[in-house]
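Thread amino acids onto this structure.
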């Protein structure tokens, strides 16, 4: 008889423990670490940072100028703030190739990170902030930007850039180069650009004129690397 009571008692303890575990499992404590993600692929609105890659290129520095007609586009998507973000027909095959190598690559999300990179780089270039620029650019592109900044300093000139906003950030080109994913984004932005001399006199630009600027920027990332970051490897201006 004593054995039967022991079995019943053990059974009751087991049921109690199961109920306790069920009430606790699945609850968030607030101390969980968020999963790692590619910072170049933002969630919904906040944009990220950039990082890794490297290869020779044909850079155009200083950054912006000129207007250009909008090319034919596919799959229009309007992002936060009414910014158009599409994959142009010239990039569809390349995007598929990149996704085959890296299934996590999402081109429209990528353009959000690209806009964040564009903003950080344009503003750092205007300030002459080489420390901010260096991790965002490959070595060849950084050398071009740094030389342009150094030349400005030697001429006692100061650049002022105000980025008003974006009309579009379309994926205009994409391809795999060996293990490297290469993506070109066509930015259409509104900016105010001014260059002043040592006496603060304007020698180029107009502080009261908003320019529509069209740029093609190419980013690169090694898909076999554990580093999720991209680097700017080429800049061009349409016009």
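Threaded sequence (239 positions):
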């Amino acid at each position: 008889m004593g054995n039967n009571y022991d079995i019943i008692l053990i059974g009751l303890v087991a049921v109690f423990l199961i109920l306790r575990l069920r009430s606790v499992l699945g609850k968030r404590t607030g101390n969980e670490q968020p999963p790692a993600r590619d910072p170049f692929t933002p969630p919904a609105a906040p944009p990220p940072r950039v990082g890794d890659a490297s290869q020779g290129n044909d850079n155009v520095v200083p950054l912006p100028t000129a207007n250009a007609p909008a090319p034919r586009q596919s799959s229009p998507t309007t992002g936060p703030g009414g910014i158009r973000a599409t994959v142009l027909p010239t990039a569809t095959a390349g995007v598929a190739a990149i996704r085959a190598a890296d299934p996590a690559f999402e081109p429209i999300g990528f353009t959000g990170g690209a806009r964040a990179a564009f903003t950080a780089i344009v503003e750092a270039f205007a300030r002459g902030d080489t420390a901010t620029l260096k991790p965002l650019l490959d070595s060849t592109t950084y050398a071009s930007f740094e030389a342009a900044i150094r030349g400005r300093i030697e001429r006692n000139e100061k650049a002022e850039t105000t980025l008003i906003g974006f009309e579009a950030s379309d994926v205009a080109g994409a391809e795999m180069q060996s293990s490297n994913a290469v993506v070109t984004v066509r930015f259409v932005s509104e900016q105010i650009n001014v260059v002043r001399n040592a006496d603060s006199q304007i020698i180029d630009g107009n502080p009261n004129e908003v320019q529509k600027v069209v740029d093609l920027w190419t980013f690169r990332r090694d898909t076999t690397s554990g580093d999720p970051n991209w680097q700017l490897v080429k800049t061009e201006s349409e016009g």
